[in-house]
Design brief:
two-stranded antiparallel ribbon, single chain, 3-stranded mixed sheet, globular
Length: 169
């Protein structure tokens, strides 16, 4: 099959597929591999949480009428951010987190933090609207300021970078 070293390949499972540790130890993960040669392939896994009564979802009502897809969307966004910022598992992570042996990747810094939410028409919660749909998405880490603890570093639902230009003569 064609592979793209700049691509991210995500596996989203269907209901009923059992993967050891899913819904109890993890909700998703990302990794990389050199399948079939020297070309690195970044991939992620997000399982369907409808196979369990506990685990990888935060509300029993789906904002869009598709419980599995809505629950998976938040975890997928989380894993995509981590794949982009730490594609091989040895890049960005927070070494200052004393509660973690290895530190946290950037999306882990805000895991399950949804910030301000609103009620949708069917009574579920959401914090983001797009294309006429509502989503409950985890915030993501914005390392504005260059390092942990600097003014501006935070969990955010969105971020707009401001370009600065310095002219020298």
């Amino acid at each position: 099959l064609p592979r793209d070293a700049n691509g991210i390949y995500d596996v989203l499972t269907a209901p009923g597929l059992y993967v050891s540790g899913f819904n109890t130890e993890f909700c998703g993960y990302h990794d990389s591999s050199n399948w079939g040669g020297s070309l690195a392939v970044q991939f992620g896994f997000v399982g369907d949480p409808t196979s369990s009564q506990t685990g990888c979802y935060v509300q029993p009502i789906s904002p869009n009428g598709n419980f599995g897809a809505d629950a998976m969307t938040s975890v997928l966004a989380h894993e995509l951010i981590e794949t982009a910022t730490d594609p091989t598992g040895i890049a960005w992570w927070d070494s200052l987190n004393a509660s973690s042996t290895y530190g946290d990747e950037n999306a882990d810094m805000c895991a399950w933090n949804f910030g301000s939410v609103y009620r949708t028409a069917n009574g579920s919660y959401a914090n983001y609207g797009f294309g006429g749909k509502n989503y409950l998405l985890q915030k993501e880490w914005v390392n504005h300021g260059g390092a942990l603890g600097y003014t501006g570093a935070k969990c955010a639902s969105s971020y707009t970078a401001t370009a600065t230009t310095t002219l020298t003569s």
